[in-house]
Amino acid sequence: MIPVRRDVGALSFEVAVQPRSSKAAVEGARGSALSVRLTSPPVDGAANKQCVEVLAKAFRIPKSTVEIVSGASSRRKRIRIDCADPSALESQLVSLIEKTS
Questions:
Q1: How far apart are alpha carbons 26 and 19 in whole angstroms?
Q2: H or E element in which residue 57 lies
Q3: 44-95 pLDDT, tens per residue?
């Protein structure tokens, strides 16, 4: 299980991205981060934008609730997802990791 931080109305965790992959998808846990493959190159924020889109689709939430809070120019990023119930989102994260692993 990857470590998560619960805040009031939000959940945050680490993501390890792999740009320029053959497909865009959540790949499961890699160490202490959620592994996300992206087809976009890491140029002009394209990979960051696609990372937000892939995570929003995986969690079935609006893109506007997903934010990269640190690591915008790195392969390792901290993601914050605004939500009413962080524990429910954490359960979704666990299910997503189990499904992809």
A1: 12
A2: helix 46-59
A3: 999 999 999 999 999 999 999 999 999 999 999 999 999 999 999 999 999 9
